[in-house]
UniProtKB/TrEMBL annotation:
UniProt similarity note: Belongs to the ABC-4 integral membrane protein family. LolC/E subfamily.
Signal sequence residues: none
Topology within the bilayer: Multi-pass membrane protein
Annotated transmembrane regions: 271-292, 312-336, 367-387, 416-434, 440-462, 483-505, 734-755, 786-807, 827-849
All residue ranges annotated as the ABC3 transporter permease C-terminal domain in the record: 737-852
Keywords for this protein: Cell membrane, Membrane, Transmembrane, Transmembrane helix
Intracellular or extracellular location(s): Cell membrane
UniProt protein name: FtsX-like permease family protein
UniProt xrefs under InterPro entries: ABC3_permease_C, Lipoprotein-release_system
Organism: Shewanella aestuarii
Length: 864
């Protein structure tokens, strides 16, 4: 049969008039699509902007660097190296970074750079050299005041307002009042605080010192290979009489290292957004199904008037496509706004854990196309069986509802059987998978299977409850509950998914918080931890040893290294050593070990190491395995590769220890081995035990040694900061969980409106038999709350299963963190209570609105 555009157009016109008479049906469909696309696009835009920031990260006010120069022993770099590069004609930028504290004890990160060099290196459309035109985009920067050492820092205009509100007056850092200069957002400072390097060195008490040097190769040298570019830098340093072997030259990796570190974080956010997307689609599909069922008489009338089934089916498909386009467009715009709200939380997490800086986000039309395509495909795939079923309705059937002809109980059994098959398969696959991406995929299958169990669970629960009810109206209420399981099933599936997500995430967050606190209690054993500029550590160490109240001094050494593993030629790690007492008493071992005297004797004298759990899991390393550490890889010049094999040493793994929050793998070696290989002599941090108030010691270090409070941390302060960072890390997932539950509740609200509309005639019959309006409202509310209660009861074990999989599979494989799973029954009770109250509101309001109407008119409409 050929399609007729006039007939299709006529059908669409009739459908539109139907929606004008029943706007709730169209609103329910659009609401589900809008909410689904909003959460999907909101998280996608947030993730994509973060990932783009990794690869597009530039030096502040400048462009992307080709190489970074830093000191081998992690102390500050003498600025003579910078002047040597500039004299050699190599475009370079001096950068200093540090922490300053305000009078309230808050820490602020300050960055200083050579402003003139940064502006000069900034690429322009007309020139590539430092000319007056190079400064055109930077008119808001008061260069004269900054270069004269004025006590001022630059920040984005939006950040200045927040800082002023927080400081409640002039910002004072390290006892120096600062002027905050607001600059345009498009200069890309983000949340950074930037000063000219002359003032930054004074503020951070680092005269003539740099944190690192950024090197930029111009277009004419970009054709050279990496070794040749490094040779240019090395020759410039050697010509100036500097020892290039003491300087590490790191290449810009286009953000690959950060992308690899944060991949699991973004993947978890994507999983949460997809869950919210599915919940929204449940709502949309519920609206489509209700709308199609309510128009069944209309469809048959159109068929009887001579409109072909193909034309009718095409019109229905075009209607769904049109609703999806409108809903996706609105959802896309709302999603971009949601992304603007979520990005600050993501920026805090990425900055604190991974040291990543997020640039201002930009939206892309491809996101709308992806959201629209995914929503359209999912909507048509979900609705197609129902559309085909309606297109085959016999003309003689009249207005009977097709859904009544389907044995619902058999359908519930088939869904439950399919869910059991999926759960069984995933249980087998979970036992053999070791990759977190596969585990997340399996977790998605479990999430799909859980809602399929719900209708059968409610049906069985109602059957078991029915014999316990007294004869009369309450027996009727429970018996009739089975009739509303099917129309409410999709809305309750959305509620079930949201509850499971909340329970599982609460289990993960609560368990992780307890585990983290226990680990911190083991890891932190000193009263005060000091991490100043590495250059002054020897002087501070000597001062501490002379204080009679200091009962113990602990030291930690750290350097960057490379771990050579089969199939992984270059794995960056942190090579760490501590005094042997700290290693013995602060290392929480995961691998079984007696930690006997022989164990520690071998560790101190032989080539054995301890590795962190994340490193062990990521590269499948176990106790007894051999590893190779190329500790001097970054310091070798391109011309000194002949001795590289001598710099690589084999070690045996003797223990695996817990390590939380460290995104880079860590290897601990004994102090004797550290000294044996001539690694950096001075420690990077100190820890002390003090007989007295640690604040007294901090004050002495400030007044007598010139340290900033930002360089000292009490044990309590570290714990509070760790828990604070932990809370911020999970804040975005908590927000997404709350939004998902809100979306599901809104879906239940719309479903209840449609259901009460459909049940007005049965309610009118009961009213005609003498049942009061109040009794009717209590009856219907009780029926729906009974279904909600069964949903919550199923959500408890299913949410616990998801929590177990999140903790023992996904989190363990993605982050390398072993977390002891704990049951937080009060939290589960609160979630169920919130769900019951939310659902009660969602049920009671539409029921009250509908039953206020004259019920006898519903009987009259039914008889027509």
């Amino acid at each position: 049969m050929t399609l007729s555009l006039p007939l299709i157009s006529r059908c669409l016109s009739v459908f539109s008039r139907h929606y004008f008479k029943a706007p709730i049906q169209a609103s329910a469909i659009l609401l589900g699509i809008i909410l689904a696309v909003t959460l999907l696009i909101g998280v996608k835009a947030t993730n994509e902007n973060a990932k783009q920031s990794y690869g597009a990260a530039t030096e502040l006010l400048s462009q992307r660097a080709s190489f970074y120069l830093s000191n081998k022993d992690q102390t500050s770099l003498d600025e003579s190296a910078y002047f040597a590069l500039r004299r050699a004609g190599i475009p370079a930028l001096a950068v200093i970074e540090g922490i300053a504290s305000d009078p309230q004890g808050r820490s602020w990160k300050v960055t200083g750079s050579d402003i003139i060099a940064a502006v000069s290196i900034k690429p322009t459309s007309n020139t590539q050299t430092a000319t007056s035109s190079s400064y055109a985009p930077f008119k808001s920067i008061p260069l004269e005041r900054l270069l004269n050492g004025h006590a001022a820092v630059m920040m984005s205009a939006s950040v200045v307002d927040k800082v002023n509100a927080l400081a409640k007056g002039p910002l004072v850092l390290n006892d120096i009042p600062l002027e905050l200069i607001a600059v345009e957002e498009n200069l890309g400072l983000g949340n950074n605080m930037l000063a000219d390097i002359s003032f930054a060195q004074q503020l951070l008490q680092m005269p003539d010192q740099l944190s690192y040097i950024a090197v930029f190769f111009q277009q004419q040298t970009q054709t050279l290979d990496i070794d040749s570019q490094k040779n240019i830098v090395i020759n410039a340093l050697e010509d100036a009489g500097l020892d290039s072997r003491q300087i590490i030259i790191d290449r810009q990796d286009d953000g690959e290292s950060l992308s690899a570190l944060t991949n699991s974080f973004h993947l978890n956010l994507d999983a949460m957004s997809m869950l919210a997307f599915v919940v929204g689609l449940f709502i949309a599909y519920n609206g489509v199904r209700y709308s199609l069922m309510k128009r069944q008489k209309l469809f048959i009338q159109l068929l009887q008037m001579g409109i072909g089934r193909h034309n009718l089916l095409t019109a229905l498909v075009l209607e769904i496509v049109l609703l999806v386009v409108i809903g996706s467009l609105v959802g896309f715009m709302m999603g971009l706004q949601l992304s603007q709200w979520l990005q600050p939380m993501v920026a805090i997490t990425l900055a604190q854990i991974y040291g990543a800086k997020l640039l201002p986000g930009l939206w892309q039309w491809q996101w709308f196309a992806q959201g629209l395509g995914l929503t359209l495909f999912a909507s048509l795939a979900a609705c197609w069986p129902l559309l085909i079923q309606l297109s085959r309705v016999p003309l003689a059937q009249g207005g009977q509802r097709q859904a009544q002809l389907i044995p619902l109980e058999n359908r519930f059994k088939r869904q439950a059987f399919a869910a059991c098959i999926i759960l069984g398969i995933t249980a087998v696959l979970f036992s053999i998978t070791t990759q977190y991406k596969l585990s997340l995929l399996l977790l998605g299958l479990v999430t799909v299977a859980i809602p399929l169990l719900l209708p059968m669970t409610i049906n069985v629960g109602v059957k078991l409850l029915l014999p316990l009810m007294p004869k009369g109206i309450w027996h009727y209420v429970v018996a009739e509950t089975k009739e509303i399981i099917a129309p409410l099933s999709l809305a309750m599936m959305a509620i079930l998914l949201a509850l499971c997500a909340n329970i599982s995430m609460n289990t993960l967050v609560g368990s992780f918080e307890v585990t983290l606190k226990q680990w911190l209690d083991t890891r932190l054993h000193a009263d005060l931890y000091i991490k100043p500029n590495p250059d002054v550590i020897p002087e501070i160490n000597a001062w501490l040893q002379a204080d009679p109240k200091i009962t113990a001094i602990y030291q930690q050494w750290t350097t960057k290294a490379k771990l050579e593993i089969k199939a992984h030629s270059s794995v960056p790690i942190n090579l760490v050593s501590r005094d042997i007492y700290s290693i013995k008493h602060t290392t929480a071992f995961k691998s079984p070990t007696t930690r006997s005297g022989l164990f520690w004797q071998q560790f101190q004298q032989e080539q054995t190491v301890l590795i962190s759990e994340p490193l062990s899991i990521k590269y499948q390393l176990n106790v007894g395995d051999q590893i190779k550490i190329d500790k001097l890889h970054d310091t070798l010049s391109p011309t000194s590769t002949t001795n590289q094999t001598e710099k690589t040493q084999e070690f045996i793994i003797s223990g695996i220890y817990f390590d939380y929050g460290n995104p880079i793998g860590e290897v601990i070696i004994s102090p004797s081995v550290w000294q044996q290989y001539a690694l950096p002599l001075h420690p990077i941090s100190l820890a002390v035990n003090y007989q007295g108030d640690s604040e007294e010691l901090q004050q002495q270090l400030i007044t007598q040694q010139g340290l900033s409070s930002a360089h000292m941390y009490s044990q309590k302060g570290i714990k509070d900061e760790a828990i604070k960072m932990f809370t911020k890390t999970f804040s975005i997932t908590v927000v997404l969980n709350s939004l998902t539950l809100l979306v599901a509740t809104i879906g239940l609200f719309s479903a209840c409106i449609m259901l009460t509309q459909a049940r007005l005639a049965p309610l009118a019959r009961l009213y005609a038999l003498g049942v009061s309006r109040t009794q009717l409202r209590v009856m219907v509310t009780s029926q729906m709350m009974l279904i909600v209660l069964f949903t919550c009861l199923l959500a408890l074990p299913m949410g616990a299963i998801l929590g177990y999989l999140l903790i023992n599979k996904v989190t363990l494989q993605a982050f390398g963190w072993t977390i002891a799973m704990l049951w937080d029954w009060p939290a589960y009770g609160r979630i169920v209570a919130i769900a019951m109250i939310s659902c009660l509101v969602a049920v009671a309001l539409p029921l009250y609105w509908q039953t206020r109407k004259p019920l006898i008119s519903s009987l009259q409409q039914e008889s027509l």
